[in-house]
């Protein structure tokens, strides 16, 4: 039995046999949603091989249960490329999600905006992404499955349903292209100008590796950024991780409303 199958069996023993309808990965400062789930919380430390999510603002536990009538699997934290130098750090958790029978995933993150019409406190639905970090979580995969097509990486039907949910809640949900930088240092003003030239609308340090891994594993996925700041050189605000955590709640209530409506179908 593979490690992901073993962990899936352990999770089923503690949280029940039913497959999750959808998985959620929560970004910096957005972990409060996991507390709203009626179910079982399993610390990552109880799941051998899971990351310890060593970034403040993340809660390293998997919560499985009911939210708005849907069975969800909520990852309260993620491991970032900059923590270990491994772009595939979230491969095992996503393999376990697939082994549990889940087929859809929504990812969230805190991001910096490159557009004045998407200010701090706003949400942005990812229409596409740029892997500016220059690495890939499938490096080292030996099978031909590593050649994953990414044309439909951000699922059209899921995006349409998220737009409908946002409209029903009266919340603006513009689409944009997310540019992945490796971190942990923030981007320079020159890098922000380069990203804008390439067609990016927001920048961040996560999500793209998980989208690539999700498509490799056959998961349909969509992603939403909570905008916490403008990119370097685009405003006078001081950018820091503390600032990110402080600003995330401005968009978190909107994100929760959209996700709850989406889950109600």
TrEMBL record:
It comes from the Bacteria. Keywords: Glycosyltransferase, Transferase. It is an enzyme of class 2 (transferase). Homotrimer. The purine nucleoside phosphorylases catalyze the phosphorolytic breakdown of the N-glycosidic bond in the beta-(deoxy)ribonucleoside molecules, with the formation of the corresponding free purine bases and pentose-1-phosphate. This is Purine nucleoside phosphorylase. It comes from Paracoccus rhizosphaerae. The lineage of its organism: Bacteria, Pseudomonadati, Pseudomonadota, Alphaproteobacteria, Rhodobacterales. Residues 21-264 form the Nucleoside phosphorylase domain. GO terms for molecular function: purine-nucleoside phosphorylase activity. InterPro entries: Nucleoside_phosphorylase_d (IPR000845), Nucleoside_phosphorylase_sf (IPR035994), PUNP (IPR011269), Purine_phosphorylase (IPR011268). Its EC number is 2.4.2.1. Belongs to the PNP/MTAP phosphorylase family. Pathway: Purine metabolism; purine nucleoside salvage. Pfam families: PNP_UDP_1.
